[in-house]
TrEMBL record:
Name of the featured protein: Rod shape-determining protein MreD
UniProt-listed InterPro entries: Cell_shape_determining_MreD
Presence of the UniProt keyword Transmembrane in the record: yes
Chief location: membrane
Family: Belongs to the MreD family.
Locations listed in the record: Cell membrane
Membrane topology designation: Multi-pass membrane protein
Highest classification ranks of the organism: Bacteria, Pseudomonadati, Bacteroidota, Flavobacteriia, Flavobacteriales
Bilayer-spanning residue ranges: 5-22, 73-93, 113-133, 145-163
Keywords: Cell membrane, Cell shape, Membrane, Transmembrane, Transmembrane helix
Length: 168
């Protein structure tokens, strides 16, 4: 296996373990649950085939569903964000994405925050919509989306800052 495959495998296992062993046990006021496993999909290499990230997103979501006993909602939300990832990358980074030269450690903090925020809000909205699955409870869906998104955005943003290799 090459270095990239080893790093990807380690990131997959790390985010899965952090999600299952730590984050799944955080439930503050019934609304705040961080879902940091989406970092894997966010930070997956850009030049890789789109089908690969969709399949890996499905497998990651399925693993989280298995440990959370949540019936497939994480898998569906992970596939959704893996599918729309190129659109979010183009919106957040523009021409850098067009030239396929994104290195997250070298991007501006504002662009990175926009990308993480959009990614997280869309994931959480899909997740909680499928979890609640009742349009009459849209306020509950929006509350859970808002509060969990804020906490997840903070954790993901801090993780990308702490673990990035800044080279300038």
């Amino acid at each position: 296996m090459n270095n990239s495959a080893v790093n990807t495998t380690l990131l997959f296992i790390t985010v899965l373990l952090v999600q299952v062993l730590v984050c799944n046990h955080i439930n503050f006021l019934g609304y705040i649950n961080p879902y940091v496993y989406i970092l894997f999909i966010m930070l997956f290499p850009i030049r890789t085939n789109r089908t690969v990230i969709i399949i890996l997103g499905f497998l990651l979501g399925l693993c989280v569903d298995f440990f959370s006993d949540s019936g497939g909602v994480h898998a569906a939300a992970a596939v959704t964000i893996a599918y729309i990832r190129p659109v979010l990358l183009k919106f957040s980074f523009g021409m850098i994405y067009e030239h396929q030269s994104i290195k997250f450690s070298n991007t501006e903090l504002g662009n990175r925050l926009i990308y993480i925020s959009l990614f997280t809000v869309i994931h959480h909205f899909v997740l909680f919509s499928l979890e609640v699955f009742n349009i009459s409870k849209i306020i509950l869906i929006l509350q859970k989306t808002l509060f969990s998104s804020i906490f997840t955005i903070i954790l993901c943003f801090m993780s990308t800052i702490l673990f990035s290799k800044k080279r300038r």
